[in-house]
Design goal:
The protein has helices spanning 3-7, 18-21, 27-32, 35-45, 64-72, 92-101, 142-151, 167-170, 173-182, 194-198, 201-206, and strands spanning 54-58, 77-82, 108-112, 125-131, 153-164, 186-192, 212-218. The protein is an alpha/beta fold and 219 residues long. 40% of the residues are buried.
């Protein structure tokens, strides 16, 4: 784990009452509560990143992972995009308020976006991250959705895309990882994060996140 993660270990995103409390309005996330902080740390710890340039989070919700990224890498600019539907009471204004409360508003930008068609040119970002978002996008091929996120990643950039990758929804992800390698991506691997993030596979399964997989690599 890089030294910046250790440095930020005591920062507890998720303690701002109604602001960060709203990100737990989903019943499953309400159950796991602060465990999502550990998930965020795990996601970021798998990035081989020097902290320079721009980070994109696809599906930023209340902004928690975007903000943690800004705290972890003080030189980076972080852009969070989200559709912000009515289900979880998230909004751009909430994200901006949360970023200001952590002192990183000047380096965090939040904007409305669609994971199916990101409003950025090819190779715009040094890092692309996402956390438990893609399974919420209905009626799409999940592997094509992942490729759309990777489209905006610069050559040499790194990615960490986490989701509950059930086979019936995602298909053959080992095959997809190999497809990325065949396309020239490097260090591509699927990480079973149940132990790291939740303490055990059993606990992850109890939280209905038993198929959690982190797709990481370099373009």
């Amino acid at each position: 784990m890089n030294k910046n993660h250790c440095k930020q270990e005591n920062i507890r995103l998720g303690t701002h009452g109604e602001d960060y409390g709203s990100w737990m309005s989903n019943p499953v996330f309400y159950i796991i509560g602060g465990i999502m902080e550990q998930v965020h740390r795990v996601v970021l710890s798998h990035l081989d990143y020097d902290g320079e340039g721009k980070i994109l989070e696809v599906g930023c919700g209340s902004g928690a992972l975007t903000i943690r990224s800004a705290l972890t890498w003080p030189k980076a600019k972080v852009i969070g995009v989200d559709h912000w539907g009515a289900v979880y009471n998230y909004s751009k204004a909430l994200c901006e308020k949360n970023a200001a409360s952590e002192g990183v508003a000047s380096r965090c930008v939040f904007q409305h976006g669609d994971a199916k068609q990101l409003d950025f040119p090819d190779e715009s970002f040094d890092v692309v991250i996402s956390n438990y978002v893609y399974h919420n996008v209905m009626g799409v091929d999940m592997q094509k959705l992942l490729l759309e996120s990777l489209r905006v990643l610069k050559k040499g950039g790194v990615f960490a895309l986490n989701d509950n990758m059930k086979q019936k929804m995602y298909g053959d992800m080992e095959g997809f990882a190999q497809k990325l390698r065949d396309m020239g991506y490097e260090e591509v691997r699927l990480v079973d994060i149940a132990q790291e993030a939740f303490g055990s596979h059993r606990r992850a399964a109890m939280m209905m996140l038993g198929s959690s997989r982190l797709l990481v690599g370099r373009k």
